[in-house]
């Protein structure tokens, strides 16, 4: 994998280079200190991956991404973002413009600590892209992955009794949610509970962005909110979200409970509470993302008789979380992204109007 590192900080270019040097099969072909120079080197070196700073002189990261849209062969892009309101807003915009994912810039005082933090965040994403490149080149051994059959895997699909829809999503999620939520009608009669793997601040920016483009109300969830139809509640980054019963109503509870399988917020954590509070009157959707968060939660939901939907491989940015749900035999339906809004709308046909 040929990589171009773009950052206006000499120190941070070194941190990224030192981190990527620990990943076998990665070649650093060039570095650039501003967006204009980055575009010149992209055209010259044709990298497979660009690590791209958001804030840079001459052309910033967003402007570089816009220019990349005009290129016939575009590299994958991982954004390097600061944990600020402005950084979160720019990152949300970058993901809309086709960036693969983002990582937070380390703010450690020691160089080795910054490298360790970046290694934890960046290298798993790079390895996913390496595997994608190997598949494109036809160099993945046949025995490495079991084939996944995209059909109905367990019983008939009848979402009509669902009174709530839970969605778990990670890498590729912001763009996927931006594709699905704006297609939903304003009078949607089920609420959506969403876990998108993101750090603090970023989920607030994502919620505001999705709310502007959607007919339903999209918000970052807060403790004590009554769960109402026609609303989408996104778990805040760095917290856990669950459903509780309070005074005869279903409410949201935001906690600081530990991460589960390194995820906070965690899909499994939300889905467990949905199983306990809604029984069989819940539906779970697992969309694009790395890892297996959501599989254990779906297993519990299935025991309660709930419907489970997984996004099909072709429309996923990363076919990790949905693959695990399908491979475990938990998916009642495997659906492309462009039909996911229809699945959500179908949940309201019988039971949704009673959802309070």
From TrEMBL:
Active site: 170, 197, 293
General function of this protein: Involved in chemotaxis. Part of a chemotaxis signal transduction system that modulates chemotaxis in response to various stimuli. Catalyzes the demethylation of specific methylglutamate residues introduced into the chemoreceptors (methyl-accepting chemotaxis proteins or MCP) by CheR. Also mediates the irreversible deamidation of specific glutamine residues to glutamic acid.
Localization (cell): Cytoplasm
Enzyme class label: hydrolase
Catalytic reaction annotation: [protein]-L-glutamate 5-O-methyl ester + H2O = L-glutamyl-[protein] + methanol + H(+); L-glutaminyl-[protein] + H2O = L-glutamyl-[protein] + NH4(+)
InterPro entries listed in its UniProt record: CheB-like (IPR008248), CheB_C (IPR035909), CheY-like_superfamily (IPR011006), Sig_transdc_resp-reg_Me-estase (IPR000673), Sig_transdc_resp-reg_receiver (IPR001789)
Domain notes for this protein: Contains a C-terminal catalytic domain, and an N-terminal region which modulates catalytic activity.
Species assigned in the record: Blastopirellula marina
Gene name tied to this protein: cheB
Single GO cellular component term: cytoplasm
An example Gene Ontology biological process: chemotaxis
Sequence similarity: Belongs to the CheB family.
Recorded GO MF terms: phosphorelay response regulator activity; protein-glutamate methylesterase activity; protein-glutamine glutaminase activity
Plastid found in the keyword field: no
This protein's name: Protein-glutamate methylesterase/protein-glutamine glutaminase
HAMAP family: CheB_chemtxs
């Amino acid at each position: 994998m040929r990589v171009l590192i773009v950052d206006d900080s000499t120190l941070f270019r070194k941190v990224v280079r030192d981190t990527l040097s620990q990943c076998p099969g990665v070649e650093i072909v060039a570095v650039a200190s501003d967006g204009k120079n980055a575009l010149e080197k992209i055209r010259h070196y044709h990298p497979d991956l660009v690590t791209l700073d958001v804030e840079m002189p001459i052309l910033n990261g967003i402007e570089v991404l816009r220019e990349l849209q005009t290129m016939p062969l575009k590299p994958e892009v991982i954004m390097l973002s600061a944990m600020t309101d402005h950084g979160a807003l720019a990152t949300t915009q970058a993901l809309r413009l086709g960036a693969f994912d983002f990582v937070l810039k380390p703010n450690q005082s020691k160089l080795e600590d910054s490298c360790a933090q970046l290694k934890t965040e960046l290298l798993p994403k790079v390895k996913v892209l390496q595997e994608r490149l190997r598949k494109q080149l036809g160099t993945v051994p046949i025995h490495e992955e079991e084939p996944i059959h995209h059909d109905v895997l367990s019983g008939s699909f009848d979402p009509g009794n669902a009174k709530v829809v839970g969605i778990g999503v990670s890498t590729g999620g912001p763009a996927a949610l931006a594709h699905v939520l704006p297609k939903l009608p304003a009078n949607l009669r089920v609420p959506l509970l969403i876990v998108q793997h993101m750090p603090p601040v970023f989920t607030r920016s994502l919620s505001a962005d999705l709310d502007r483009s959607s007919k339903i109300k999209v918000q970052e969830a807060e403790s004590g909110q009554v769960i109402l139809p026609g609303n989408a509640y996104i778990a805040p980054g760095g917290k856990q979200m669950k459903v509780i019963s309070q005074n005869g109503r279903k409410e949201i509870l935001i906690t600081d409970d530990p991460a589960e399988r390194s995820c906070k917020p965690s899909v499994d954590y939300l889905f467990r509470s949905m199983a306990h509070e809604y029984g069989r009157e819940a539906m779970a959707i697992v969309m694009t993302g790395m890892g297996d968060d959501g599989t254990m939660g779906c297993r519990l939901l299935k025991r309660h008789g709930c419907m489970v939907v997984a996004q099909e491989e072709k429309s996923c940015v990363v076919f990790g979380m949905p693959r695990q749900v399908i491979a475990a035999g938990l998916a009642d339906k495997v659906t492309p992204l462009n039909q996911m809004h229809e699945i959500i709308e179908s949940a309201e046909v019988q039971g949704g109007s009673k959802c309070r």
